[in-house]
Design a protein that fits this description.
14% of the residues lie in helices and 37% in strands. The protein has two helices and eight strands. A five-stranded antiparallel sheet has the order 4-5-6-7-8, with helices on one face. It has a three-stranded antiparallel sheet with strand order 1-2-3, covered by helices on one side. The chain is mainly β. The protein has helices at residues 3-14, 63-71, and strands at 25-30, 38-44, 48-54, 92-97, 100-108, 111-117, 123-130, 139-143. It is globular. The structure holds zinc ion. Zinc ion is lined by residues 17, 19-20, 22, 44, 46-47.
Length: 150
């Protein structure tokens, strides 16, 4: 059961403290001393650190990620976090260190979604790479851009 975890993660992503409902700030950290090298965390100005997870969890609720899975016949909500390949350091590429820009590769079969997040773990760019297009060649489709999902 991942419902409770997911609820907490969602609140961290929404930017509201689950304890006092104050607005929180998110940040990403690159450190090999943690369980994962690439993590994000949320901090409440009143309660302090609320929690964090792998940076892959920061894009878990993004509509582009949800629909990417949905278009492949997978309901991401029915998956456990450890079944999602992008919640892993192997899927992360450091594009820039200061300010931090990380790319997270979400791969299903031969298709890939390249999700770029900034230093506050917000999605700033999404590129869809489909290898199984009707033309049989790689098609790069630039979409999204700034987070317009709110
Ligand atoms: Zn709080």
């Amino acid at each position: 059961m991942t419902t409770l975890w997911r609820h907490t993660n969602q609140q961290m992503l929404v930017g509201i403290c689950p304890y006092c409902q104050t607005e929180t700030t998110k940040s990403i950290e690159i450190a090999s001393s943690n369980i994962w090298d690439y993590t994000y965390s949320a901090t409440c100005p009143t309660c302090g650190p609320i929690g964090g997870s792998h940076v892959g969890a920061a894009i878990l609720e993004h509509p582009a990620v949800i629909s990417f899975y949905w278009n492949h016949g997978i309901d991401i909500r029915a998956k456990h976090i450890w079944e999602l390949g992008f919640v892993d350091d192997e899927a992360v590429t450091v594009l820039n260190e200061n300010p931090s820009r990380l790319r997270i590769d979400v791969e299903i079969e031969d298709d890939r979604l390249e999700v770029t997040i900034d230093e506050t773990a917000e999605v700033i760019d999404i590129v869809v790479i489909e290898s199984s297009g009707p033309k049989g060649e790689s098609v790069t489709n630039q979409s999204a851009g700034n987070d317009s999902s709110r």
